[in-house]
Amino acid sequence: HEAQKTPTRLRFYESSISKETTERLLLENDLHDALANQELFLEYQPQLDLRTGQIKSVEALVRWQHPKKGWISPGVFIPIAEESGLIIPIGQWILETACQQVKRWEAAGLPPIKVAVNLSLGQLFQQNSVEIIQNVLEKTQLKPKYLQLEITESMTINIDHMTTILHKLKALGVTIAVDDFGTGYSSLSYLKDFPIDCLKIDRSFVQKIQSNSTDKALVDMILSMAKHLQLKVVAEGIEEIEQLSYLVASQCDTIQGFLLSKPVSPRTFQENYVTLHNDAKYILDSISASK
Ligand code: C2E
Ligand code: MG
Ligand code: MG
Ligand code: MG
User: Fold this and answer.
1) What sequence ranges are listed for the domain EAL (predicted)?
2) CA–CA separation, 255 vs 247, rounded Å?
3) What pLDDT, in 10s, does the model give residues 34-63?
4) Which end of the chain is more exposed for a tag (fewer CB within 10 A), N or C?
């Protein structure tokens, strides 16, 4: 009888794990139907080109409106999609929808907009990944230079394979950005092999740029390294005017963050396009006036 008794602490541990697992399985099950039920949609976050004051690009971010549970963060469901393999159909849909959207904005009379799309490792390492992306470009008739693919440092697992794929993608004419740069615990040597166009400085470094000298040093280091390697830089998660001010002074190329705009629907982006530029001009002018 003694042997069958589970210590209280262990029982608690087991039950909390299984609750988490059950929740995850339920979500995975629902995610199977999310595409067909049209519960997934994309929002777009504008990026401001600091040299011209123009919004020349956006990042596509996927959202899931669950019929019962409401809004579920991509931070929650993307890992589930990745582990279950659902990222393959979902990722394909994201890519196609984002490329189509750029064509729609163009048809609506907006100046050319480049869209950045986040890719998961499983998407890039699937058979024919390059052909699939090429097909999306052909199907949507989007010029490849208007598509930027975002990868992360976690994709340095297999440098040789990744290098081959990225070179093929570059040959299509798309550009490649490293997302969340500096957070991946990987060596920097992949920068020698991967044909990269752009580094995205992670929000965590930018946030305390004014108060933390280490974060400031890291941002300076990334900007200087990017300059030497002739890479563009997008700084993510800009919420404060002081952060923007510092990045303007440091000649960062592009910023993205709530200060300019949250991720918005395609319609809102289109309708607010002019207003967004006025806001951007106002902010940039106030920075140069305060010098
Ligand atoms: P990410 O690619 O680094 O995207 C930037 C995240 O930062 C987005 O969160 C965005 O809403 C948020 N953000 C932007 N500006 C600010 C700011 O000023 N302050 C703060 N606090 N946050 C800001 P989101 O949309 O929740 O996405 C989280 C992550 O989920 C993304 O990080 C990306 O890794 C993943 N993800 C989102 N959409 C996709 C997708 O279509 N495919 C894949 N594979 N992953 C995606
Ligand atoms: Mg991203
Ligand atoms: Mg990021
Ligand atoms: Mg991320």
Assistant:
1) 24-277
2) 8
3) 999 999 999 999 999 999 999 999 999 999
4) N
CA of 180 to the centre of ligand 4 (A): 6
Q: Given pLDDT bands bounded at 50, 70 and 90, which one contains residue 2?
A: very low
Is residue 137 within 8 Å of residue 99, measured between CB atoms?
yes
Residues 6 or more apart whose CB falls under 8 angstroms from that of 5 comprise none
Residue position matching structure tokens 């409401």: 70
Rounded to 5 degrees, φ, ψ at 254 are -145, 145
Report the residue among 73, 78, 126 best suited for mutation to probe ligand 1: largest number of ligand atoms under 8 A from its CB: 78
Task: Report how far residue 265's alpha carbon sits from residue 175's, in angstroms, rounded to the nearest whole number.
Answer: 24
Tell me the CA–centroid distance for residue 60 and ligand 1, in Å.
9
The DSSP bridge pattern shows strands 70-72 and 54-66 to be antiparallel
Cβ-contact 185, 199 below 8 angstroms: no
The pairs formed by 236-242 with CB atoms below 8 angstroms and a separation of 24 or more are 236/180, 236/200, 236/201, 236/202, 236/203, 236/206, 237/202, 237/203, 237/204, 237/206, 237/207, 238/206, 239/207, 240/210, 241/283, 241/286, 241/287, 242/209, 242/210
Burial label, 115 (beta-carbon count in 10 A; 0-12, 13-18, 19+): buried
pTM of the model: 0.94
CA separation for the pair 99, 236 (Å, rounded) = 22
Give the mean model confidence (pLDDT) for residues 95-101: 98
Residue type, 291: K
The β-bridge partners of 115 are 58, 147
Q: Are 231 and 253 within 8 A, CB to CB? A: no
What's the 236 CA to ligand 3 centre distance in angstroms?
6
How many CB atoms within 10 Å of residue 215? 16
